[in-house]
Amino acid sequence: MMFRRGLILFLPRLVGLLVVACCSMSIVYMLACTPKGDNQQLALPRVHSPTVKEGYEAILQEREEQQRNYIISLKKQIAQLKAELQGRTEQLKNMQNQYPDSLDIQLDHSKPEKTQANLLAFLRSQVDKAEVHSGVKLSTEYAAVPFESFTLQKVYQLETGLTRHPEEKPVRKDKRDELIEVIELAVGSLNKPDGVSKAKPRVYTASDFVEGIYRTEKNKGTLYELTFKGDAKHQFKKIVLFRPFGPVMKVKNENVNMADTLINVIVPLAKRASKFRQFMQNFREMGIQQDGRIHLTVVYFGKEQMNEVKSILENTSKSANFKNFTFIQLNEEFSRGKGLDVGARFWKGNNVVLFFCDVDIYFTAEFLNSCRLNTQPGKKVFYPILFSQYNPSIIYGHHDSIPSLEQQLIIKKETGFWRDFGFGMTCQYRSDFINIGGFDLDIKGWGGEDVHLYRKYLHSNLMVIRTPVRGLFHLWHEKQCLDELTPEQYKMCMQSKAMNEASHGQLGMLVFKQEIETHLHRQKLSSKKT
Predict the structure, then answer these.
(1) pTM score
(2) Which segments in the chain show pLDDT lower than 70?
(3) Range 263-508 classified under CATH 3.90.550.10
(4) Is the dihedral angle over the CA atoms 99, 101, 105, 111 positive or is it negative?
């Protein structure tokens, strides 16, 4: 028993001695043997060399330096990765702070890596869904989303907007900034080292940009294809970029109560009693009977036909039991801006929505609600784009009779156009109108005053809501451009008159009416002969 215990205690010591002996032999072998290379020897000195100690110290120092440099390199890479991860985490946090209630992507502060991966996966899926890598089957020729092209100086566009120019310098700041950003990003991408070629890379600049095309798929993103000059005459560099749209995010959820929101409709007027009668029919049906939260202010210039206008107003008041109206008479030359300004300032009640209107306007009850919903004191003013009616005599000239007014008010390209050059019909709170300074009262006669007011709002911190509306119509009437107008006003008046008559196709039919009739007559004779 004692022998067994002694053996158990002795075995570990024996194993330890054997390990020490093996290690000693290995060290002696390494020191004694000098490996040879091709035509040279390594720096390991022989054991009996007089410089053994210095040689070992030099080798150890060299290897320590290599390890130190490697560790420093790893630390730098780790620091860069941490900085990049922290930066992206901050971006995600800022996005969450800005849009706290994302509908599709929930940003989790505790798991930024997972959130970032989810976001990147979503953005990549947007690229895959868009028509970037390959075409998609479309049902008709109208389903294709066209590209627009651009250079450093100009944009060539199908959607001409208010400017009506098929080519223009990008005057809108958002469009200008967008294209500059895209070109700069493309240049940066071209100048980024590829890590393969050892030759000195060419430095690209914006002057190497030849042209680009872009298009936007509303629910996916914007595709850009940019072409740059290459290294030789017929060589080019092409960069394809895609700006994916993020998920829809909820910004606000609120209840809006418009039950007590009154609209003061202000109409400046001179003569035109028959038009005012038609206007009051519309006002009675839509404003009084259907809406009911409305006030009418008529600012009348001069005395001619004034009694007839007042009679129409009083008859409507009696028959509809309507008392919310004001009649203001001015003994001076007609000025639309002056009339609207006087009517707005005459109001003495609480803050009210002002609807600047004309006597040849037709509106619906739905539009009055749009007027309320798109205005907010100190924040928003509403500039609706109304649908302007063409001359019914031209549109329905081939019919036996012209349809009723309600039947004419159809939004089609044959019946009218969006009057996107007009800024006269507008809704805003009275407080905003007063604070902005009102109309320029030096402008007389027709046109100009509405544009000046519109520009004042654009130069302010108020949000201008500009959109087509389906419940606001400009009724056709023959336009008279008076000789006393300034040259600029007269030109604007004549342009408006030309656009009011009919579409290009309908006017073309009138211009070539004789040729068309001659053709039809020949066809008729030809059919008789056969």
Answers:
(1) 0.65
(2) 1-57, 84, 87-112, 134-136, 138, 140-142, 158-171, 195-198, 248-249, 251, 398-400, 443-447, 530
(3) yes
(4) positive
pLDDT at 431 (0 to 100): 97
Instruction: Read off the tokens for 337.
Output: 């801006």
At 142 the pLDDT is 66
Q: What sign does the CA torsion over 7, 12, 13, 19 have? A: positive
E strand map for 40-154: 101-102, 148-150
pLDDT, position 69: 77
d(CA 270, CA 226): 57
Q: From 325, 323, 266, 262, select the one nearest 294 (Cα to Cα).
A: 262
pLDDT at 43: 42
Instruction: Give the span between the Cα atoms of 454 and 342, in whole angstroms.
Output: 18
Please give the Cα distance from 161 to 159 (Å, whole number). Answer: 6
How far is residue 145's CA from residue 132's CA, in Å, rounded to a whole number? 12
The CA distance from 475 to 275, in Å, is 10
Q: In this structure, are residues 479 and 497 in contact, taking their beta carbons and an 8 Å threshold?
A: yes
Q: Which two tokens stand for residue 79?
A: 């620091």
Q: What pLDDT does residue 38 have?
A: 41
Three-state SS string over 416-450 comes to EEECCCCCCCEEEEHHHHHHHCCCCCCCCECCCHH
395/417 Cα distance (integer angstroms): 13
Largest CA distance in the chain: 142
- Say what the pLDDT of residue 315 is: 94
Q: Where are the domains of the chain?
A: 141-191+203-256, 263-508
354/375 Cα distance (integer angstroms): 10
